[in-house]
Structures are given as C-alpha cells and as structure tokens.
C-alpha cells in the first residue's frame, strides 16, 4: 500500500479511502491511485488474503430466484449496497425453487470461499447444509422464509398479520364471499392463508373451501385462469385476496378480460398499481429493508457475532387505493 | 477429484457432472458428492486455480445501474444464466451513472481477478480504462451504450430505428404535433432523439423545438411535470414519444391526473402496459437477449478470441396497443 501511495503521489489515507470506497476522493486522484494499484499489482492481495488462514474473500454470496421478479431485484439491490459500503463484493446466484439447482449453487458459492451466504431457501428440507457446510461453517442468513432442517438467522415479513389486515379490509368493505389465491406450498403464502382464515374466523364468517384456491404454479397465467373459474362458478366471490403480486396481475388480467369488477387486495405493492383502471389496494412490504437487514445480520456474523440464531419479523402495512371496495349489487346483477 | 468420487461412492463422471452443473444427477447422489467435496476440501481448488499463472477465477464481473430498474434486472438475469451454464459465477456491482463510483467499482472488480467484465458504461470518458486495465488486459464488453475513450466489444439496441418507427406510427395515426421526452444526455436517448427527428423530416413535418424536452433527471416525476407543462401550454402536442419506460410512467401519471388523453408511444415494454386504462403502445427490446449476447461475447474473449472489437446491434419492434391513436378534435376541444 505504501508503494501505491508513493507511485500515485498521495498519502496512505487516500489510498485506503479509494480501496475501501469510503470518504470523498477527487476523481482525478482516485484514477491515479487505481492506475498505481494496477501497475504494481497490489490487487493480487485481494485473493492472497482469501487464502491466509482465518481470513476470507471479502465476498459474500446471494442466492435467490428470478431477478425479473421485482421482489428479488429489490433484495439484491439492497444487499449489494450494504455490502459495497463495507468493502464486500456480492457473488450472485439464482436457483428459482429447484432444490437440486439450489444445492449445487450453495456448494459452488461455498467452494468459492465466500465469507457468508444470504439465501432465499426453497420449501424443501435443508438438513444437507449441516453436512455441506460442516467444515467451513460459513455464516448463513435465510431471507423471506426460514429453512427447514437447519437453523440460522432469518429475516421475514409479517405475512400472517398482513394477510389478516388485507382480509379485514375486504370484510370492512362489506364483502362476505372472499376468495384467496395461494401460490403452491411456499412458506410465505401458507402464512398468508393462515392470516386470511384467522380474519374470517374473527369476523364470524365461515370459510368456504371452494374459495380457497391453491394454484399449481405461482404465475399470472395460472391466477388468471383460476379467477375466470371462480367468477363464472355458481356462487362467485365478490372479492379476491391475491397472495403475491404475480397473482394480483393474474386477477387483473382475468377481470379485465371478463369485464367484471371484483374487490381485490394484493400482497406486495407493484409499480403502476395506482395507475390501473381501478387503483389496486395492496399489503406493502419494504423488500429493500428486508435485504438491508439480512446483509447487516450476515456482516455481524462475519465479524464474529456468535449468539443463537436470530429471527426478525418486519412489519407490513395496507395501502388503500380503492380496489377493495364492494360494488353493491354486482354479485346479484350477474345472475 | 478421485478422492471425492471414492468417498461419495460414485464415478468420476458423476463428480464432474455435479461440479460443473451439467447433466442430470439424482438429488441424493448430488448431496453425497457435495458433502464429500466439503469434507475433503476439494473446493479450495477454485481459488488456487485463480492464482496459477494464465488461469483466472472463473468469475466475471457485471457492473450496471439500479437493479430495481427492470432493464438492469433482466440484463443481470440473462448474464447470470449464461455464466452459470459455463461454470462461471457473477460478481455483481452497481454504479448508477456516477463516474467516480464506476471507476472504483471497476478497479475493485479487476482487483478481485475477474476473468472478464460486462459494463453498462456511464456517459463520461472511459480512457482511464486503458491505464487501469493495462496490466491484466481483462476482457471487457460494453452493453446498451458504447464507452468513449476506449474500444471493446459492444452490444446495443437499434435505438434510432426503434425511435423512427415509434414516431412514424404516431404520424400514421394523424398526429402532427408530437413531443419527445429525452432523459439527460445518455447515449441511448440521444440516438432515440435522432430517430424522432429523422421520422419527422421524412414526413415533411418541421420539428418544433418547444416539443423537444430534455429532462434534468430521467425519473417518472420529472417526466410527469414536463408533461403537465406541455399539455397546459398554448399549443399543446397531441402525442408524446417517451424515450424510456420511466418517462412513459411519468406521462401516464400526468395525463391521468389532468384527465387528458394524449397519443403515447414509449420506448421499452413494461409489465402492466397492456392493462393500463388505455393500453400502451411501445417499442419493445429484448433485454434478456442483450444480456445473453454480451455474456457470450465475453466468454468468447475469455476463451481466447482476439479479433478486433465487435459491435452488435439488436433489432427492436413496435407493439401497437392503442395509446398512439389520435382522438379527433381533442387538441381543439381544449381551447
């Protein structure tokens, strides 16, 4: 580092600021320092450091689903930002609900000597991690869902509370026949189903199991066809609670196609929700905060925190935009 | 590798398939192989390999803007997929149009011994890369925009052609007063402005420079306030060409607020475009293909391709959904 400072004609503090990305350095100076680093080959230290015993790569791994899902994109954005501020780089890997792909990706990331791992786990058993990670004990943080079969820090949303609030809102608007669309056997939507059942029970409304629809896939297409079936059945619902934003999209597609109006609350806010023909009421969750919190927990562990696994539940809140309203007579007008 | 195969009780081919992620391996077998790898510490080879002369880390860097912009998310998704299939991991870094942050991020990625770099460059001068990368000669691929001051492979969209087509469509619908919203001095929107001017010239329509609006920032908010100004001016346009999807969002917000209808074509498709009160006509570009193509060019270079820099221009196409239509008398009815 002294060589770099000398060659660039700056102080050690300046080199350190450039390398760590902390504090303000004039552009021209930063470029000179970076060129000196390059010329001298100081950068090799990054890797050399990762080989020294007790040290690691100043890189952490992030394993999540399809980035074109805005939920994962926000998570990744926040984690990369927190990592960058602490001088960490992020190795990105995607698994998308395939257990075999997930195992391989985790093995691959550990093999690259990451200092820690943030994982959005699939719904399968994760006890294999106890073996896979037995030697290195790489700190893990699970996000959005806990992993079964292993224990580590986890950051979740208040799925049950948010779903209860969504359903209560529809009940307050006068709805009694409220359908729920559930994506297949995910932890989060399972909890959301619990919140729905609880709100109905608390309001003294019996659950009509024909209105509880578990989809084969969590896609907008599957949600659209389930909505079409619901709305053309003998006793259609007057409202739908869609447990993810893809399912909300499907409900909107089906109702627009059928020119039907149905009360709607979606879990997760989305861009353009307020610009829809009927602005969409949602349960909003701060996904970037989820990512930031997970990254901070992981950095704690990397820095030596050794307490028992921590479980953080982040609050969610209802944004009322109008789509939950009950249009009097709609249900009867159809028949 | 032989040790791993022995310990896991499988053939060498199976170990290879698990490590490289190629071919089908039963879950249970894969787990056994991964556990054996862990136990033996075979993974250290990943890093050892990156230190051997002439070898590299089997990692490439991806430097782009804010991941909550679906454009960058699609790019990242595609690059990670191509990388994964070839046994590469992706180090993700974001710079978001700040030249100093960009330089530091590139220096940092090169310092981590990436095998190559995919960069969405900002609009500044990139000649510093000649110094920064002088020693390692890490292959670079620029994506979405070329970088000034240095030369490397680049993958672009046909911005000018797409913008010309968008403007032609509005002219075909009978519009003559067509405004354009341009994000500040980006390469892409500059080319789109050229396409707009060209289409008007070809149709014999003089450009009214009051209808060419360059925004201070490329945000939906700035586009909304520019649209409000345009529509409340003495001679309002009957149509707007929005050169990015954020700007399209801004036009939609302003027209909904003012309860005005204006012809609209946006550059870049977006989720929910077809569900808007008036479905939005767009110039659609395949961003995932952009990312895949960039990753393939980079892997070519990593594998030794040494020809002159290549420039690929990917086609775009118009999706007509109705928002470009001219509502007769609208312009005059207002005055």
Summarize the structure in words:
Two copies of one chain form a homodimer. With 335 residues, chain A is α/β, with parallel strands linked by helices. Chain A has three domains: 2-42, 434 Repressor (Amino-terminal Domain), CATH 1.10.260.40; 56-157 and 287-315, Response regulator (Rossmann fold, 3-Layer(aba) Sandwich), CATH 3.40.50.2300; 159-285 and 319-333, Rossmann fold, CATH 3.40.50. In chain A, 44% of the residues lie in helices and 16% in strands. Chain A has helices at 2-8, 12-20, 27-40, 44-51, 70-85, 99-111, 128-132, 159-172, 187-202, 220-231, 245-258, 287-302, 330-333, and strands at residues 59-64, 89-94, 116-119, 140-143, 153-157, 178-182, 212-214, 239-242, 263-267, 281-284, 311-314, 317-319. In chain A, the strands form two sheets. A six-stranded parallel β-sheet of chain A has the order 2-1-3-4-5-11, with helices on both faces. Chains A, B: This is LacI family transcriptional regulator. Chains A, B: Residues 1-53 form the HTH lacI-type domain. Chains A, B: One of its GO terms (molecular function) is DNA-binding transcription factor activity.
In quaternary terms, these chains amount to homodimer
Q: What does the radius of gyration of chain A come to?
A: 25 Å
Shape descriptor of chain A: elongated
Count of spatially separate domains of chain A: 3
Instruction: Tell me the total number of β-strands of chain A.
Output: 12
| CATH A-level architecture of the largest domain in chain A | 3-Layer(aba) Sandwich
User: How far from one another are the termini of chain A?
Assistant: 79 Å
Please identify the top-level CATH class of the largest domain in chain A: Alpha Beta
Topology pattern of chain A, helix = H, strand = E: HHHHEHEHEHEEHEHEHEHEEHEEH
Number of helices of chain A: 13
Query: Portion of residues in helices of chain A?
Result: 40-55%
Largest interface: A-B, 71 and 71 residues
* Low-pLDDT sequence parts of chain A: 42-54, 329-335
What would you give as the CATH superfamily of the largest domain in chain A? Response regulator
The major sheet of chain A is characterized as: 6 strands, parallel
**Average of per-residue pLDDT values of chain A:** 87
Strand order of the largest sheet of chain A: 2-1-3-4-5-11
CATH-defined topology of the largest domain in chain A? Rossmann fold
Q: Which structural category fits the helices and strands of chain A?
A: alpha/beta
Q: What fraction of residues of chain A sit in β-strands?
A: 15-25%
Protein name (chains A, B): LacI family transcriptional regulator
Domain HTH lacI-type (chains A, B): 1-53
InterPro entries (chains A, B): HTH_LacI, LacI/GalR-like_sensor, Lambda_DNA-bd_dom_sf, Peripla_BP_I
GO molecular function (chains A, B): DNA-binding transcription factor activity; transcription cis-regulatory region binding
């Amino acid at each position: 580092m002294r060589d770099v400072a000398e060659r660039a004609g700056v102080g050690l503090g300046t080199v350190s600021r450039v390398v760590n990305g902390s504090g303000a350095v004039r552009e021209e100076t930063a470029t000179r320092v970076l060129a000196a680093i390059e010329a001298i080959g100081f950068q090799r230290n990054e890797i050399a450091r990762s080989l020294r015993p007790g040290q690691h790569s100043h890189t952490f791994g992030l394993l999540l689903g399809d980035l074109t899902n805005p939920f994962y994109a926000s998570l990744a954005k926040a984690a990369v930002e927190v990592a960058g501020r602490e001088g960490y780089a992020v190795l990105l890997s995607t698994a998308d609900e395939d257990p075999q792909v997930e195992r391989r990706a985790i093995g691959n990331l550990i093999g690259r000597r990451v200092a820690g791992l943030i994982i959005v786990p699939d719904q399968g058993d994760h006890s294999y991690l106890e073996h896979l990670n037995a030697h290195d004990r790489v700190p893990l943080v699970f996000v959005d869902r806990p992993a079964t079969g292993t224990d580590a820090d986890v950051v979740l949303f208040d799925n049950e509370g948010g779903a209860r609030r969504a359903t209560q809102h529809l009940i307050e608007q006068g709805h009694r026949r409220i359908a729920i669309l559930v994506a297949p056997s995910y932890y989060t939507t399972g909890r959301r189903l619990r919140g729905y059942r609880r709100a109905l029970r608390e309001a003294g409304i019996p659950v009509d199991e024909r209105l509880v629809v578990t989809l084969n896939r969590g896609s907008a297409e599957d949600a659209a066809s389930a909505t079409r079936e619901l709305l053309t059945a003998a006793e259609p619902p007057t409202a739908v609670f869609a447990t993810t934003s893809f399912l909300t999209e499907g409900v909107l597609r089906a109702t627009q196609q059928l020119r039907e109006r149905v009360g709607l609350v979606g879990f997760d806010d989305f861009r353009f929700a307020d610009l829809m023909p009927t602005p969409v009421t949602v349960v909003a969750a701060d996904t970037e905060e989820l990512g930031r919190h997970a990254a901070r927990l992981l950095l704690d562990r990397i820095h030596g925190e050794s307490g028992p696994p921590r479980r953080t539940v982040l609050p969610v809140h209802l944004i009322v935009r109008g789509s939950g309203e009950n249009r009097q007579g709609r249900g009867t007008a159809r028949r």
